[in-house]
């Protein structure tokens, strides 16, 4: 018993250390979003990132964790067709009754106080240079107080998706140990909804519908952000594997290896695809490939082999690189941060890949791929319409988009009264590749 207690304390300490790395992923996303936007909105982008993290943490701890809960704790269960459907938790607000003592539930609350901020930061890159700060905070409050906790309960809080295996014999239930769907697909689909609501930046599309290339202002920030995100992602995948996948500390070496290999394969393929497509590598799309590889790895990084992680990364790089252009050309989706390809598309692919490959390592549990498809269908068929509807209503109450004069002036001067680089010349809209 003493040995068991010793190892449980060791596991909790390792999990806590992993969680404390996650804010590096937050910093990486902030730098990436900033670098892919315009110079005259750089300070606004960084302040918005800080505000998003602050609002998300406050709202999630106040009410979000109450809706999400933790597996084994009280929840609302509906009986449908004689089967129990656990659809939302029933926990006190402000973490009342939760012992903050390195228990799995308290560690999950700490982890998700950070990850809900990551999910809420994803739309910032997609709607850069035109989304008002007050509206950003309002949208973040809705996501962290309702959208994210609801889906997270279904996956991580003992909800119906996680019980598909026990109730219907579909593998081990829906698998998403690191949040490819719960964090990144939710954030990426929210980005898609908000972009649809707000529309493209001025000058992005010509009269005949052809998109103009508007380069990011600081690709050094973008690449450095990817490196920071890599370290944070290893912490995120480690903590998620332990808390939501039951992985022991000895399995974390595999998590780190697979996370790195998936990102590396995806980034290199994105470099090759853009080289073939444009005649030279595209740094921003390649960075999106790296980020997409990190996202795809999060679905089941402790349940796949290194060779499979490489293969998942290679496919991710192709999907991200091609979807950037397809979404821009055919859906008129102006997403300067590449949030939809690198988070929504990559996250959904990671979930599907988990169903295809993770079941092999866990003993070939039948129906695992179907459980993953049900989770993917829930994200696309329920979460996307819901988050679109909620943001549509918010847009009527708090107009999301800055006026044309403010967009032309830049978000820094319009909303903050000062630019990020007052000592340097700022390019105008004439600096656009057509």
Query: Which structural class do you get from the secondary structure elements?
Result: mainly alpha
- Quaternary organisation: single chain
Helix percent reads: 55-70%
Biggest sheet layout: 2 strands, antiparallel
The sequence of SSEs as H and E is: HHHEEHHHHHHHHHHHH
Major beta sheet, strand line-up: 1-2
CATH architecture: Orthogonal Bundle
Binned strand content = under 5%
Distance between the termini: 69 Å
Query: Which descriptor suits the 3D outline?
Result: globular
Instruction: Supply the number of structural domains.
Output: 1
Can you summarize this structure?
This protein has 434 residues and is mostly helical. Helices cover 67% and strands 3% of the residues. The protein has a two-stranded antiparallel sheet.
């Amino acid at each position: 018993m003493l040995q068991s207690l010793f190892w449980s304390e060791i596991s909790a300490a390792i999990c806590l250390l992993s969680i404390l790395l996650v804010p590096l992923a937050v910093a990486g996303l902030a730098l990436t979003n900033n670098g892919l936007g315009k110079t005259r909105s750089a300070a606004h982008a960084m302040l918005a990132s800080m505000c998003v993290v602050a609002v998300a943490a406050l709202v999630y701890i106040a009410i979000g964790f109450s809706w999400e809960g933790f597996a084994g704790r009280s929840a609302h269960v509906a009986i449908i067709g004689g089967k129990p459907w656990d659809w939302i938790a029933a926990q006190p607000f402000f973490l009342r009754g939760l012992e903050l003592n390195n228990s799995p539930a308290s560690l999950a609350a700490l982890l998700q106080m950070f990850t809900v901020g990551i999910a809420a930061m994803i739309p910032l890159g997609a709607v850069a240079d035109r989304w008002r700060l007050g509206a950003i905070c309002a949208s973040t409050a809705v996501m962290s107080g309702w959208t994210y906790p609801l889906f997270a309960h279904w996956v991580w809080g003992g909800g119906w998706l996680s019980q598909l295996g026990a109730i219907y014999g579909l593998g081990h239930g829906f698998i998403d140990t690191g949040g490819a769907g719960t964090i990144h697909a939710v954030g990426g689909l929210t980005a898609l909804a908000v972009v649809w609501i707000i529309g493209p930046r001025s000058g992005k599309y010509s009269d005949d519908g052809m998109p103009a290339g508007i380069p990011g202002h600081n690709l050094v920030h973008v690449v450095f952000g990817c490196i920071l995100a890599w370290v944070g992602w290893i912490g995120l995948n480690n903590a998620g594997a332990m808390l939501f996948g039951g992985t022991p500390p000895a399995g974390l070496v595999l998590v780190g290896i697979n996370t790195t290999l998936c990102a590396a394969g995806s980034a290199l393929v994105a470099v090759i695809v853009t080289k073939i497509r444009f005649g030279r590598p595209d740094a921003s799309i390649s960075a999106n490939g790296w980020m997409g590889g990190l996202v795809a790895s999060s679905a089941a990084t402790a349940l796949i082999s290194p060779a499979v992680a490489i293969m998942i990364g290679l496919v991710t790089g192709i999907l991200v690189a091609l979807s950037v252009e397809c979404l821009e050309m055919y859906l008129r989706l102006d997403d300067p941060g590449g949030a939809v390809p690198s988070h929504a598309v990559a996250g959904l692919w990671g979930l599907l890949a988990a169903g295809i490959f993770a079941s092999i390592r866990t003993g070939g549990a039948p129906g695992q791929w179907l459980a993953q498809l049900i989770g993917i269908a829930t994200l696309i068929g329920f979460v996307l319409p819901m988050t679109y509807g909620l943001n549509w209503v918010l847009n009527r109450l708090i107009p999301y988009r800055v006026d044309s004069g403010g967009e032309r002036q830049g978000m820094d001067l319009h909303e903050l009264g000062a630019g990020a680089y007052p000592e340097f010349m700022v390019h105008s809209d004439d600096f656009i590749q057509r």
